[in-house]
Amino acid sequence: MSAKGKTIYRCTDCGADHPKWAGKCDVCGAWNSLVEEMAARSAPTGGAARRAGGARTMAEGGSVVATPRLREVSGSESRRWKTGINEFDFVLGGGIVPGSMILIGGEPGIGKSTLLLQVAARLQSGGHPTLYASGEESALQIKLRADRLSEDAGDVSLLSETNLETVLTTAAAVSPAVLIVDSIQTVFTNDLEGAPGNVGQVRECAARLMRFAKESGTAVFVVGHVTKGGGIAGPKTLEHIVDTVLYFEGENSLDHRVLRATKNRFGSVDEIGVFRMAQDGLVPVANPSELFLGDRSMHSSGSAVTALMEGTRPILIEVQALAAKAGFGTPQRVATGYDGRRLALLLAVLDKRAGLSFGQLDVFLNVVGGVRLQEPAGDLAVAAALASSVYDRSLPNDAVFVGEVGLGGEIRPVSQAERRLAEAANMGMTTAYLAERTVPKRVPKGLRAVGVRTIADLFERVFT
Ligand code: TYD
Ligand code: MG
C-alpha cells in the first residue's frame, strides 16, 4: 500500500464505491456523482478469514475501551463561551460549546469573514485564545479588514495556510480555545488527490477538523461558501458532519444581514440574529422589526404587514404585491421571498372565494428586506396585499395581518398569536386582523384585535 493511503471513489447518490473515477456510477446510473474518498483501513488479517464469518472476525482489529456511565461524564451545558455579540450568542443557543464544530455558510461577500474576525476579537479579549486560519486572504489583507472594525483583533493569532495537515499541526501546537478555518473550500489534505474545494476534499477536511475539535476540546468554526444551488460545497455533505450550521444571508445591495441556525446540536434551530453591515463591521440589530419596516411605503396600495415568528422571536415584515395588466401570453407570476406554488394557490383561492380574477394580470410579490416568508401565518398579509393591489386601495397603515388561508377561503389560527400581537403593539400597530379563534383574551394595550372568518369577510372590513 502506498504511504498516501488508498483512495476510492464513492457515489454520493447510492453510496457504492468504485476503485476508479468514472463519469457515471455503474450501480445506480447517476451521472457525475463519484467523489474521491479515503478508504477505510482494512483489517490486518486477510479477506479469507473475514469471509469465514463468526464472532472473532466481527471484533477483529478492535480494542476494549472504557464505557463510563452517563452520570460520570463530566462537563455541563453551562460551560459556554460568550462572545458578547448578543445576536451571535443567541443564534448559537447561548454561546459557543467547547469542542463543537460550527459551519458558517453564505454567499461570497456577504460578510462571513468579517463576522468571524469580530467573533475572534471578542473571544480573544474575553480570554479564549483564537487562531484564525485563512486560505483566502493574506495576513495583511486580514489586518486591513481588522483595522476597520470597532473591535480590537490585535491579539488574534493568524495562520495563512491552505494545507490541512499544517493547519492541524499548528493548531495542536498553539492549542487555541477556538480555531477558525476560512474557508473549507480552500484547504486540502495531502492524502487526497482532488483539488481543494472538491466534494471529497471538503468532506475529508471537515471530518478531520471535527475529529480535532472533539479530541482537543477546541471549538472549530468553518466557513463554507454557498454554491449557486444553495448547498454548501456540493450536496449538503457538510451539514451532516458538523454540530451546528449557521447561514449568513442578506442581499448584497442591502446592508442588513440575517444569521440563521438551520441545525444545532446544542440549541434550537430557526433562531435568527440580525446585523447591519456598517463602516466598522457588523452591528447587531436589537429590534429587527424597526429595520424591516423602516422604509415602508405609506399609503400605497399592495402593501401589507404581517408578524412572523423567527424561532422564538416575532418580527414584523412588509409584503408587497403588484398586480398589473399582462401583455401577451401567459401572465407572469413572480415571487421573491415567497413560495411560488403557495402564491399560485392563494391566487386560486382569491379567485374562487373572493371573486378576484388574476387571469389577465401579471402578479409580482415581494417580501421586503430579503426576508423569506415561509410560515403559513403570512398568507393573510399576502392575500390582503394582492387584493389591495387589484382594488388599488391602500390598506390601513397601522394594521397587521396574521393568519393561514385555507382552500375554502377560511382564515385559520396561527401559533403564538400573543407574542405576535405584542410585537405589533410594540411597533405602534393599532389593529390586528387574525382568525376569530386566535383572538387572545388579553390584547396588548393600544392594539385592537379583529377576528375574521374568511378572506371575503376581511376584505369587507378593510376595503369598505
Ligand atoms: P467579507 O467578510 O469579506 O465576506 P465573505 O467572507 O462572506 O466573503 O465581507 C465583504 C464585504 O463586506 C465587502 O463587500 C466589504 C464589506 N464590509 C463593510 O461594509 N464594512 C466593513 O467594516 C467590512 C470589514 C467589510
Ligand atoms: Mg471571506
Short description:
The chain is an alpha/beta fold. It has helices at 47-51, 55-58, 86-92, 112-125, 139-148, 164-174, 199-216, 237-241, 288-293, 340-354, 379-391, 417-426, 455-463, and strands at residues 7-11, 17-18, 34-38, 101-106, 130-134, 157-160, 178-182, 219-225, 244-249, 256-264, 272-278, 281-284, 303-310, 313-325, 333-336, 361-367, 399-402, 404-405, 411-412, 431-435, 448-452.
| SS-derived structural category | alpha/beta
Which whole number gives the mean pLDDT? 87
Which regions are unreliable across 5 or more consecutive residues at pLDDT < 50? 42-53
> Strand arrangement, largest sheet?
6-5-7-8-4-9-10-11-12
Strands, helices and their partners?
Elements: E1 7-11, E2 17-18, E3 34-38, H1 47-51, H2 55-58, H3 86-92, E4 101-106, H4 112-125, E5 130-134, H5 139-148, E6 157-160, H6 164-174, E7 178-182, H7 199-216, E8 219-225, H8 237-241, E9 244-249, E10 256-264, E11 272-278, E12 281-284, H9 288-293, E13 303-310, E14 313-325, E15 333-336, H10 340-354, E16 361-367, H11 379-391, E17 399-402, E18 404-405, E19 411-412, H12 417-426, E20 431-435, E21 448-452, H13 455-463
Parallel strand pairs: 4-8, 4-9, 5-6, 5-7, 7-8, 15-16, 17-20, 20-21
Antiparallel strand pairs: 1-2, 1-3, 9-10, 10-11, 11-12, 13-14, 14-16, 18-19
Helix pairs in contact: 10-11, 11-13
The chain binds thymidine-5'-diphosphate and magnesium ion.
Polypeptide structure, described:
The chain has 464 residues and is α/β, with parallel strands linked by helices. The chain has 3 domains: 52 residues, Rubrerythrin, domain 2 (Single Sheet), CATH 2.20.28; 209 residues, 3-Layer(aba) Sandwich (Rossmann fold), CATH 3.40.50.300; 173 residues, Ribosomal Protein S5, domain 2 (2-Layer Sandwich), CATH 3.30.230. Helices cover 27% and strands 25% of the residues. The chain contains 13 helices and 21 strands. Strand 9 and strand 10 form a beta hairpin. The longest helix is centred in the middle third of the chain and has 18 residues. About 3% of the residues have low confidence. It binds thymidine-5'-diphosphate and magnesium ion (MG). The site of thymidine-5'-diphosphate has 14 residues, from helix 4 and helix 5.
